[in-house]
Fold IPT/TIG domain-containing protein.
Amino acid sequence: MTQAQQRPELDKNLDARTPTIEQASPESGSEGDTITIRGRNLASVEKATFQVGQDTRRGEIVQRGEDDQVKVRVPRGLAAGGGQILLSNSTGESNRLKFTVRS
């Protein structure tokens, strides 16, 4: 296979890298609020997870498509308090970012 024929496969693999979270805006929210998460490799995000204490809930992905940001909705049923968010795709999980759930 020539180098030109291999290039599409290489580009495809670059799109599937593990996501990295750098910032959430706002840094706190109530259930149902939409937040913007900025970072790298976010176009392929499949799942947003919010955790407060031992409770883990899946947030709805509202908008994706850009590699540097994704919008997610804070899930219902989480207790108020300090927690964290993580994103995942087929390659793996992102780092965890602090997030506060408000009542």
